[in-house]
Design goal:
The complex is a heterodimer.
Chain A lengths: L8 H9 L11 H8 L4 H6 L1 H34 L1 H5 L1 E3 L2 E2 H43 L1
Antiparallel strand pairs in A: 1-2
Helix pairs in contact in A: 4-6
Chain B lengths: L2 H5 L8 H23 L5 H6 L6 H12 L2 H14 L1 H12 L1 H15 L4 H5 L5 H34 L5 H52 L4 H10 L18 H17 L4 H6 L6 H32 L2 H6 L7 H50 L6 H26 L4 H25 L5 H20 L26 H18 L6 H13 L7
Classes of the chains: A mainly alpha, B mainly alpha.
Chain lengths: 139, 535
C-alpha cells in the first residue's frame, strides 16, 4: 500500500472485507450494514463459546468421515480382491457381496440421520447463540 | 459406430419413435414454459443463485436431478444387466460420496460463499491467482462432464427416436444444445433449478414404477428375479459376485480401486453440485437438501439394482449388448417389456430430460465461474458491476453451448461412463483437497491452494494422456500408437493423494501465513453463519 493519497474510509473498508460482499456494493443490503460496524471476528474466534463449538463440530465430523471412508474402502478392497468371499451365498441367490453392498446403503442413511440429530441438538443452538450475540452488538 | 450392427432391426416396436418424438417435443414445450414463467433476471443474485429462495427439500430433489445423469440412470442399469455386480459398485460409490458433502462441505460452503466455488477458495487468500485457478478447474471439469452428457445424447436418440445417420444424431445433439442454452438464458438459476426438480421427480417416479412392475412379475421375490437373470446372462451366477468386469488381472483390480476412490471423493468437488448449495437461504437448509438428496438417491440406486438384474432377466443380456446403444439401452428395453409403449415413452422422456437438465446445470455453473471468478475478479479487478457479470455469463453460456455441441459430436460413440469417471477424478484431485484445507486448516495459504489445485489438475491430465485411454489399446482414442506409460484408466489413486501432499508442501513454502483477520472471519462465518449471504 504505497498510494500517495489514502483511499476514502468506505473504499478501504470495502477492500478489507475483500471480494465477497463489497464487490456488489449498491445492490447488497448486507454490504452497507457491514461497512458501518463489522464484527471483530478475531475476538469471536478466540472466545470460549466459539472454540467449544468448533471442537464439538470437529470431534464429530472428522471421526465420522474416517469411519465411513474406511468402511467404504474396506468394502471396495473386498470387492476387488476377495471374489470368492463375496460370492458366498447367504439366502437363495443373495450372496455376501449383495448384502455388504446393501449394507453400505444402510450405513449411509444411518450416518446421515445420526449427523442430523447431532447437529440439531448439539451444534445449531450454540451457533445460533453466537450469531445472535454478534448481530445484537452490531446494532 | 458399427454399421452392420446398427442395420439390424430395431429392438423396439415401429410405433414408438413417433410416440417418443411427441413426448420429447411436449417435454421441451412444458419445461420451457415453466422456465419462462419462473424466470428471474433482475439481479446477479437471482441469476446465479435463484435469490437463495429454494427450500431444502426442493433443492434436495434438484440435487438428485442434477446428479443422476444419463450415466447414472442408463449406464448403471445397463452395466448391471451385462456385467452384473460390478455395475452395482458404481452406484455405491456415487451414494456414499454424499456423506463427504453432508459432513464436511455443504454447510460451510453455503455460509462462506455466494455464487461459485472460487468465492470460498479465495475468501482468505490472494484473490486473483486463486480465483483464476478455481475458474480453470471449474471450466475443465464441467466441460468434460458436459461433453460426456452430449455424447450420451447421440447414442440415446439412436435407440429412442430411431435416428441412425450420423447427421441425424449431430442434429439432435445441436437441438439439445440449443434448448439447454435457452433454459439458462431465459431462466437463470431459478429456471434451471425447476427443470432439475421436474426431471428429478419424473426420474424417481418412473424408476419406482418399473421396479414395482418388475418385482410384481416375479411375485415380489428378488431371489426369483436373480435366478432368472443368471439364466439369461452368459456369465451365469458370476453376475452376483464382483469381478466380471474388473477382475481379470492385478492392473484392472487396481484400476477399479482407483475409480472407486475418484467416485467417493469426486462428488464434493463437482462445481455444479457445489453451486446448488447457494440456492437455499441458510446452511441449515443446505443440510436438509443433502439429507433429502441422500434418501432419494438411496431409493434410486436400489431401484437401479433391481432394474439392472431385471433387464437381464426379462430382456436378456445379449439382446441388450447388441442393441443400437449397447448397455445404455437396458432400461428403455426393459420399460417396454414390462409396461409397453406407455412406460417406454415415460422412460424416454426421463432420459431425454436428464440430459437436457444436467447439461443446462453445467452450462450455468461454468458460465457463472467465468463471469464471476475470471471476468469480474481477475480481468476487471472487481470493477465490473453485477449487470456486466450477468451479461458476460449469458454470452459465455452461448459459447459453451456451441463448444459442447461440437465436442459432443466429436466424441459421439465414446464411452460415457468413462468420461464421467474422469471428470470425477479431476474434481476429487483438483478441488477436494483445497476445499478441505481451506475450511479446516488455519495455516493453509495461497501457495498451498495453487499447488494443490494445479498439481491435481496437471497430474490428472498427464496420467490420462499417458494411459491406455489415449493410446496402446484397440479401443483407445489413438489406437495405432502406444505411449501408454501409466497402466490405469483412472488416475484417481495417484492424483488425489498427490494433490493433498502438494497442497501441504506448498503451504510451507510460503513463509508468511495469510491474513489472520480473514481467516478468523471465514472460520466464524463458516461455523455460525454470521454475515452469510441470505439472498
Amino acid at each position: 500500500m504505497t498510494n500517495a493519497t489514502p483511499p476514502p474510509l468506505r473504499a478501504r473498508s470495502a477492500e478489507r472485507t475483500g471480494n465477497a460482499p463489497a464487490s456488489f456494493g449498491g445492490i447488497d443490503k448486507s454490504a452497507t450494514r457491514r461497512s458501518t460496524a463489522a464484527p471483530d471476528f478475531t475476538v469471536i474466534q478466540r472466545s470460549e463459546e466459539f472454540t467449544r463449538l468448533r471442537r464439538r463440530v470437529r470431534w464429530f465430523v472428522f471421526p465420522m468421515t474416517i469411519l465411513f471412508l474406511a468402511w467404504y474402502i474396506g468394502y471396495v478392497l473386498l470387492a476387488a480382491y476377495a471374489h470368492d468371499f463375496m460370492a458366498e451365498p447367504v439366502v437363495g441367490k443373495v450372496n455376501v457381496g449383495l448384502l455388504l453392498g446393501v449394507l453400505q446403503f444402510v450405513t449411509t442413511v444411518v450416518i446421515t440421520t445420526i449427523y442430523v440429530r447431532f447437529a440439531n441438538r448439539r451444534i445449531d443452538p450454540y451457533a445460533d447463540e453466537i450469531r445472535q450475540n454478534v448481530e445484537d452488538t452490531e446494532q | 459406430m458399427n454399421l452392420a450392427q446398427m442395420d439390424q432391426s430395431t429392438p423396439l416396436p415401429d410405433s414408438s419413435p413417433m410416440v417418443n418424438v411427441a413426448v420429447f417435443a411436449g417435454l421441451i414445450v412444458v419445461t420451457l414454459a415453466v422456465v419462462y414463467f419462473v424466470n428471474s433476471r433482475s439481479t446477479s443474485s437471482d441469476y446465479f443463485a435463484a435469490g437463495s429462495a429454494f427450500s431444502g427439500p426442493q433443492n434436495g430433489v434438484a440435487l438428485a436431478g442434477d446428479f443422476l445423469s444419463a450415466a447414472s440412470f442408463l449406464g448403471i442399469a445397463g452395466a448391471i444387466a451385462v456385467h452384473g455386480y460390478d455395475g452395482f459398485l458404481y452406484s455405491i460409490g456415487f451414494l456414499v460420496a454424499w456423506l463427504v458433502n453432508l459432513l464436511l462441505i455443504a454447510e460451510r460452503l453455503r455460509n462462506t460463499g455466494r455464487f461459485t466455488m472460487g468465492d470460498v477458495l479465495s475468501f482468505r487468500m490472494r484473490r486473483r491467482p486463486v480465483r483464476a485457478a478455481s475458474a480453470v478447474s471449474t471450466l475443465m471439469i464441467t466441460c468434460f462432464y458436459m461433453i460426456a452428457q452430449m455424447a450420451g445424447a447421440g447414442g440415446l436418440v439412436a435407440l429412442l427416436l430411431d435416428v441412425r445417420s450420423e447427421w441425424g444424431q449431430a442434429l439432435v445433439i445441436a437441438v439439445v444444445g440449443l434448448v439447454m442454452v435457452l433454459y439458462v438464458l431465459i431462466g437463470g438459476m431459478k429456471g434451471t433449478t425447476w427443470v432439475q426438480i421436474i426431471k428429478g421427480a419424473l426420474l424417481l417416479l418412473s424408476v419406482t414404477m418399473i421396479t414395482l412392475f418388475l418385482l410384481g412379475k416375479f411375485g415380489f421375490s428378488f431371489s426369483a428375479l436373480l435366478e432368472q437373470a443368471a439364466a439369461n446372462n452368459p456369465l451365469g451366477s458370476d453376475i452376483f459376485a464382483p469381478g466380471a468386469k474388473y477382475g481379470e488381472d492385478a492392473v484392472s483390480k487396481l484400476d477399479f480401486v482407483s475409480l472407486s476412490l475418484a467416485l467417493v471423493l469426486g462428488v464434493a468437488g463437482l462445481p455444479h453440485v457445489l453451486m446448488r448449495f447457494y440456492t437455499v437461504p441458510s446452511s441449515r437448509e443446505a443440510r436438509r437438501s443433502v439429507v433429502w438428496a441422500i434418501w432419494l438417491m438411496s431409493l434410486f440406486y436400489l431401484c437401479t439394482l433391481v432394474i439392472g438384474y431385471g433387464a437381464a432377466a426379462l430382456v436378456g443380456s445379449e439382446k441388450i449388448a447388441n442393441a443400437p446403444s449397447g448397455e445404455n439401452s437396458a432400461a428403455p428395453l426393459l420399460a417396454y417389456e414390462v409396461g409397453g409403449t406407455f412406460l417406454l415413452g415415460a422412460v424416454s422422456a426421463v432420459a431425454f430430460a436428464t440430459i437436457l437438465a444436467v447439461v443446462a446445470g453445467l452450462t450455468l455453473t461454468a458460465s457463472a465461474s467465468f463471469a464471476h471468478d475470471l471476468y469480474a475478479n481477475v480481468f476487471k479487478s472487481n470493477d465490473a458491476g453485477p449487470e456486466a457479470e450477468v451479461r458476460v455469463a449469458r454470452r459465455t453460456a452461448m459459447v459453451l453451448g456451441a463448444v459442447s455441441v461440437l465436442g459432443g459430436i466429436l466424441v459421439s460413440g465414446q464411452n460415457i461412463a468413462f468420461l464421467v469417471g474422469l471428470a470425477f477424478a479431476f474434481a476429487a484431485s483438483a478441488n477436494l483437497s483445497t476445499l478441505v484445507y481451506t475450511m479446516f486448516w488455519r495455516r493453509f495459504n495461497t501457495t498451498g491452494t495453487l499447488w494443490g489445485m494445479y498439481s491435481g489438475l496437471g497430474s490428472c491430465l498427464l496420467l490420462v494422456l499417458f494411459s491406455p485411454v489415449v493410446s496402446g489399446e484397440p479401443d483407445s482414442m489413438i489406437p495405432g500408437v502406444d505411449f501408454a506409460l501409466f497402466p490405469l484408466n483412472n488416475p484417481g489413486i495417484v492424483a488425489i493423494p498427490l494433490s493433498f501432499v502438494c497442497g501441504f508442501i506448498g503451504t510451507f513454502l510460503e513463509r508468511s501465513p495469510e491474513d489472520d483477520d480473514r481467516q478468523a472471519e471465514m472460520e466464524v462465518r463458516s461455523l455460525t453463519g454470521v454475515g452469510a449471504h441470505s439472498g
